[in-house]
Amino acid sequence: MRTALVTGGTRGIGAAIAMALKDAGYRVAANYAGNEEAAARFTEDTGIATHRWSIADYDECARGVAAVEAELGPVDILINNAGITRDVMFHKMTPQDWRAVVDVNLNGVFNMTHQVFAGMRERKFGRIVSISSINGQKGQMGQVNYSAAKAGEIGFTKALAQEGARFGVTVNAICPGYIATDMVMAVPEAVREKIVAQIPVGRLGEAAEIARSVLFLASDDAGFVTGSTMTVNGGQYIV
Ligand code: CAA
Q1: Closest residue to atom 25 of ligand 1, CA basis
Q2: What are the pLDDT digits (tens) for 14-41?
Q3: Where in the sequence is the domain holding 127, given as residue range(s)?
Q4: Using 50, 70 and 90 to split pLDDT, how confident is the model at 189?
């Protein structure tokens, strides 16, 4: 039985991923940054253990991953899902808005992947799946910080895929479009309506639709898929 770790795994897309992996027979741990109440509810509902640390902090990641591995064994599958937004037009964006988003959304991917990659390489199996975004592919006004970090995740994926390939470690990114989560629901309603009008499928996506894409990339069947960017956006942006 393989072990999977999902960052930001107690809410939204991450929670759907953690549950789908558990249902598919993996041992699963979920990391979260701060929302204790949501984490407690998630464990109560799913039986999945949660671990609190900030992925923006390298040392916390080292301690957190060690704790997960002590409980469940080496991490075979890492889902870099945790992410934040600080949406604001660039001329009003503060260095803090920039840094907070890059620290979590991009540096967090380094901080987490670095804890597990060497072990995967030694064991000749690993799956790294990073949840990037449509906005890392196309750019989005009000999200210079987020778009830059999410585009960075795609470059990270393409480079590390080449390093992992000979060792059975695949590295892929998924670019969700607008999914019905707290993050998207925080967008002002009038803006959200404009966004839905740009989605050919005519609706927001569901977190479970991203989870099903993750299941494929995490599976043994996906051993030849590496360095890819899987677009799951209802046709909103076609690459
Ligand atoms: N799509 C289309 N139009 C948009 C837009 C978007 N994503 N974001 C802003 N606009 C439009 C607004 O509708 C508005 O148009 P009008 O002047 O015609 O009314 C114009 O841009 C200016 O916007 P605001 O009046 O809202 O300006 P503001 O300074 O008060 O706020 C903002 C700017 C913070 C960027 C706010 O518009 C906003 O939050 N926009 C959403 C940005 C966005 O798409 N974020 C994605 C969050 S979800 C996510 O990140 C997950 C993921 O990976 C997809």
Answers
A1: 191
A2: 999 999 999 999 999 999 999 999 999 9
A3: 3-177+207-232
A4: very high
CATH code: domain of residue 228: 3.40.50.720
Which pTM does this prediction carry?
A: 0.96
> Is 166 domain-assigned?
yes
Q: If DSSP codes are grouped into helix, strand and coil, which group holds residue 21?
A: helix
Mapped onto helix, strand or coil, the DSSP state of residue 6 is strand
**Pocket flag, ligand 1, residue 154 (CB < 6 Å):** no
In a domain, 20, yes or no: yes
Answer whether 88 contacts ligand 1 (Cβ < 6 A): yes
- Residues paired with 131 in a beta bridge: 174
Total Cβ atoms within 10 A of residue 148: 17
Tell me, yes or no, whether 190 lies in a domain. no
29-87 residue pLDDT tens: 999 999 999 999 999 999 999 999 999 999 999 999 999 999 999 999 999 999 999 99
Domain total for the chain?
A: 1
Give the residue among 170, 182, 187, 206 at the shortest CA–CA distance from 8. 182
Token couple for 229: 């960017």
The reported pLDDT for the residue numbered 172 is 98
**Could you tell me the distance, in angstroms and rounded to a whole number, from the CA of residue 99 to the centre of ligand 1?**
20
Q: Ligand 1: distance of its center to the CA of 185 in Å?
A: 12
Q: Is residue 58 among the annotated active site residues?
A: no
Per-residue pLDDT tens over the stretch 95-151: 999 999 999 999 999 999 999 999 999 999 999 999 999 999 999 999 999 999 999
Q: Cα(177) to centroid of ligand 1, in Å? A: 15
Catalytic one of 26, 32, 58, 146: 146
Is 186 near ligand 1, meaning CB less than 6 Å away?
Answer: no
